[in-house]
Amino acid sequence: MTTIVFLLVPGLHLLDLAGPAQVFSSAADLGHDYRLRYVADRPQVPSAQGVPVLAEVAWPELTPDDLVLVPGWRSPALAGTGRLDPASVRRLREHHDSGGTVASVCSGAYALGQAGLLDGRRCTTHHELQEELAVRYPAATVVRDVLFVLDGRVITSAGIASGIDLALHLVAMRHGPGVAARIAREMVVYARRNGDEPQSSAMLRHRAHLSDTVHRIQDEIDTRLADRLPLAELARSAGCSERTVTRLFGQATGLTPLRYQHLLRVERAEHLIGQGATVESAARAVGFEDARMLRRLRAR
């Protein structure tokens, strides 16, 4: 039986914990031998969302087949956060030194750094913490804007929901992609994402504005990604003129509606290609007549 130990830090984010825990629990429900344990420096750990989590204070006996995973905690900055007793940091390091695997979600990478496990390795964390992590651990190579990074037996992931992607990847490595896909379906996860996919999608990057009109236009484009959407049709959906659509959309996003749709199409196509689709089939799936336009846009 493989033991998954979650090392809990005060202020932990519940989804950083619950997402991976659900993946491994679902794998156990399918007949795979996983036992989940929750360890902390104290028997009750406060979460960032206000729900306390009960934990063991004594570590179980571990073997090289076991995994220790550190979920992230509320941390606008790393300094002064992630308080772990030296004994817990030492156990984390000893598990790796004895041949075991360690992993983190979001700011949990800081705990791995405290244990000396990031030096000379590639790693990642939430995009808002990447710069500080790089400054605090200059011997590490912080990989920007990816979902997770595997460097030997040290595995780090980005923020919050990326822990689900990391756990699904680990299940796929051990039991095959079919098992991981079945768990993803049971969890109603849209798709298992690859580690090198960006943390911030084009859809999110261009939604940080306050224009209700532009949000309505983007809603139309987002839901009809593969359709041909003439400017006149977008104007009707927004209840304004074509000229107003162009002006407001440019002010809010810096793009034309067509350019925004192309960005979404390319990003979706990249995801399909990463899941094994051909360039041609991905191009057709997102609304291009053939792969030539997709290749040109990818080249940009």
Automatic annotation (TrEMBL):
Keyword terms, alphabetized: Transcription, Transcription regulation
Name used for this protein in its record: Helix-turn-helix domain-containing protein
HTH araC/xylS-type domain sequence ranges: 215-300
GO molecular-function terms, A-Z: DNA-binding transcription factor activity; sequence-specific DNA binding
PANTHER family (UniProt xref): ARAC-FAMILY TRANSCRIPTIONAL REGULATOR, HTH-TYPE TRANSCRIPTIONAL REGULATOR RV1931C
Record-linked InterPro entries: Class_I_gatase-like, DJ-1/PfpI, Homeodomain-like_sf, HTH_AraC, INH-QAR
Phylogenetic lineage: Bacteria, Bacillati, Actinomycetota, Actinomycetes, Pseudonocardiales
Keyword Methyltransferase among UniProt keywords: no
Domain of life: Bacteria
UniProt source species: Solihabitans fulvus
